[in-house]
Structure formats: structure tokens, C-alpha cells
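User: Sequence recovery, please. Input:
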């Protein structure tokens, strides 16, 4: 058995409960083995015991919405076109590498050209790259001419979307991404935020096939009708959810549909971080977005933290900005931290991740102080544990 890592005397928050409690955490073979009363963990001669007195010990964070092919500049689509597949893959690997030192140990990549993110995810799995666990969609399943056509597989009609899902699964997608409405950034012409794209019938066929293949589905959905189509079709996570109606929110609560609102990226774009056409559209949606998030939180919809990192204004990584913005939109510090740990992991289908308990991955974030009262501390981790190995920053 490999030597254990013992973190002694920290304030441990398990990813779920209402606050931290003092405990020693014993990690071994990549997993959390046990939590014991402070000062009582026994260590063998080979084990590494580290005093983390005064530190908060949290589960490694989860960013549920990133695009590793994008660079967070004003117009990342143009840069991908300029770089081509090979340079874009190198860039994506470099962005992935930045996540672990920030304490972000799991990300979900919701779309990219040439299935680059699936390749990067594989590189991490095989040990070629020191990055977070990546659940990657690869290309997206969209209607002809739909949202983000540059990385979409155009599919029209229920049979075609089923083929689209199967194609992505065959290439190694860990999640299926689709578009139920238009968006703010991506195409300068011909795309409206409120316009529905894949129909209810297409989305239902897509979700059914993805679930039969053991994959969850994330739908880009801003406009009210498209969000309603996606929720009723059994989509697992609604990305953005800018215009939510009360009946849709009630359905989300009943079905456990998750909202990944990505609030900060719209504020950045509205502030001028995107091309002019997108700045204009972002300004038109920010207030509605705030109301929708408040409505969802009040009703009890599960909300998770995703940044859209790589999109205009959102560098890799940007998760602490989203955690802070979610608090500004009405989540409590506890709700915002759950959104970036256990709730996000559940939405990714990783029920052991995002918490600290026996058997969970030993992916941990150590911060000097109390992140519940000061989330800015998350920007400066004291250390990060990845698969039971401690890295000091
Ligand atoms: Zn996105």
C-alpha cells in the first residue's frame, strides 16, 4: 500500500454539511480513507503527516462549464480559426494545466472544435498531462445553422440527433451537449437569444439516446420556449437559463433538472468584453438573468457553478469569480460552495466527487482561513491535494 497523506488539525468541510468541523483527514491510494477526531490519526513511518491547523480543507472545486479550445479573449472563435487543430490542441492542454494549482480538480467541457477536449481529457487520464478530471462533450449536437455551428454536428429530425449522439459517444464523449436556443456570442448574424432551435421532439430523442448510452445531456438554453422544450424533454442540465418561467421552474424542481446559469460571463460581455453584436445582446439579458436565478433558487432548483471559461472575458480558470457572482445573485456562501463542489459533481454524474468522505477521490483544496466568510481566499490556495498527493503552491 502506498504511504498515506494525513492532514492534521484542519477545519474540514465535507462539501455538503452546513459548515466545517475540526478533523484529521487520512488519504491513501488516491482516495480519502477516513476522517477522525483531531489529533487522533495514526501514522506509519512512511506516511506524510502535514499540520494544517488554521486551514480550511475543502473538496477540490468543480467548474461545470468550460471551453478549453477558447482563450477568454474578445473573440475566441477567430483565434481558433487562425490557429487550426494542432495549435488549438496545444493551447487547450496548457489551459487545462492551469486548473489544478487553482484547486479546481474537475471540469466539464461543453463544446469545442475537432473534439479537442476529448483528446485533452484522455491525455489527463493516461498521465500525459497534469490536469483536472475532464468530462468532455467534444462537438455539440445542433440543428443546421444553430448555436455555435463551428463546433456543431448539424442534425435535423429525431433520427439524425440519435445518430449525432451515437457519433459523439463513439468518439469518447463523457457528456452530450446540445443547443435548444440561440445565444449571445458566436455568430454575428442570424442568431436570436429567444429563438428555439432543436424542437421538443428532437431534444426528447436526443436525451433518450444519451441516457441509454449512459451519458447526461447539457442544453444551451436561454429563451423561455427553448428552456421549456429542454426541461420537458428530460435534459439533465440547463446551461445559462436566462429567461425562466414559473411553470418551467416548477417542472425543474419536480424532475431535479439542474441549472448551470454561468452568470458572470454575461456581465463581462455586457461590460464590453465581446464583439459589438454580443455586447448589445448581453446587455439585453443581464437583468432577466438575475431575476431567473433568484426565482430558481427560491423554488429549490439545484444550481451549479459553471464559468463558460474561454468565452469572451473569462480566462482559464475563472471559477472564484463565478462563486462570488452567484452570491451576488442571491446564493448564500454555503449554497455557492455546494454549487462548486457536491452539487456540480452530482450533475456531472460523479457522486463521490466534490465531497470529503471515506471513498471519495482525495482531490482537496486547502485555504488559509475561512472561505465561507471570505470567498476571495479561494483565489490563493495554501495547497492542493490531487489523488492523495499534496502540492504546495
Ligand atoms: Zn458555453
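Assistant: Recovered sequence (393 residues):
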Amino acid at each position: 500500500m502506498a504511504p498515506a497523506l494525513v492532514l492534521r488539525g484542519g477545519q474540514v468541510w465535507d462539501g455538503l454539511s452546513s459548515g466545517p468541523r475540526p478533523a484529521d483527514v487520512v488519504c491513501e491510494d488516491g482516495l480519502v480513507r477516513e476522517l477522525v477526531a483531531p489529533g487522533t490519526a495514526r501514522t506509519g513511518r512512511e506516511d506524510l503527516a502535514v499540520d494544517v491547523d488554521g486551514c480550511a480543507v475543502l473538496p477540490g472545486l468543480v467548474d461545470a462549464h468550460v471551453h478549453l479550445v477558447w482563450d477568454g479573449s474578445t473573440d475566441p472563435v477567430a483565434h481558433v480559426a487562425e490557429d487550426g487543430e494542432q495549435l488549438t490542441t496545444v493551447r487547450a492542454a496548457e489551459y487545462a494545466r492551469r486548473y489544478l494549482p487553482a484547486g479546481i480538480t474537475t471540469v466539464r467541457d461543453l463544446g469545442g472544435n475537432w473534439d479537442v477536449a476529448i483528446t485533452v481529457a484522455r491525455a489527463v487520464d493516461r498521465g500525459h498531462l497534469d490536469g483536472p478530471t475532464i468530462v468532455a462533450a467534444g462537438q455539440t449536437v445542433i440543428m443546421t445553422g444553430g448555436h455555435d455551428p463551428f463546433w456543431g454536428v448539424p442534425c435535423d429530425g429525431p433520427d439524425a440527433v440519435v445518430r449525432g449522439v451515437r457519433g459523439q459517444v463513439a468518439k469518447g464523449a463523457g457528456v452530450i451537449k446540445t443547443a435548444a436556443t440561440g445565444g449571445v456570442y458566436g455568430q454575428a448574424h442570424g442568431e436570436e437569444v429567444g429563438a428555439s432551435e432543436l424542437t421538443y421532439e428532437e431534444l426528447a430523442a436526443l436525451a433518450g439516446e444519451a441516457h441509454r448510452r449512459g451519458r447526461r445531456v447539457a442544453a444551451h438554453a436561454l429563451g423561455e420556449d427553448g428552456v421549456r422544450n429542454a426541461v420537458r424533454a428530460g435534459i439533465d442540465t440547463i446551461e445559462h437559463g436566462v429567461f425562466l418561467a414559473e411553470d418551467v421552474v416548477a417542472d425543474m424542481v419536480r424532475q431535479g433538472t439542474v441549472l448551470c446559469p454561468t452568470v458572470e460571463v454575461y456581465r463581462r460581455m455586457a461590460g464590453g468584453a465581446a464583439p459589438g453584436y454580443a455586447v448589445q445582446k448581453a446587455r439585453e439579458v443581464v437583468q432577466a438573468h438575475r431575476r431567473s436565478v433568484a426565482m430558481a433558487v427560491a423554488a429549490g432548483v439545484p444550481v451549479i457553478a459553471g464559468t463558460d471559461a474561454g468565452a469572451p472575458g473569462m480566462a482559464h480558470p475563472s471559477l472564484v469569480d463565478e462563486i462570488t457572482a452567484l452570491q451576488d445573485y442571491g446564493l448564500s456562501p454555503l449554497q455557492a460552495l455546494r454549487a462548486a463542489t457536491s452539487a456540480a459533481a452530482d450533475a456531472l454524474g460523479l457522486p463521490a466527487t466534490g465531497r470529503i468522505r471515506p471513498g471519495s477521490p482525495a482531490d482537496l483544496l486547502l485555504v488559509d482561513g475561512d472561505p465561507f466568510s471570505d470567498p476571495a481566499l479561494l483565489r490563493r490556495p495554501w495547497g492542493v491535494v490531487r489523488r492523495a498527493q499534496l502540492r504546495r503552491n
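Residues 65, 67, 110, 308, 311 surround zinc ion (CB under 6 Å).
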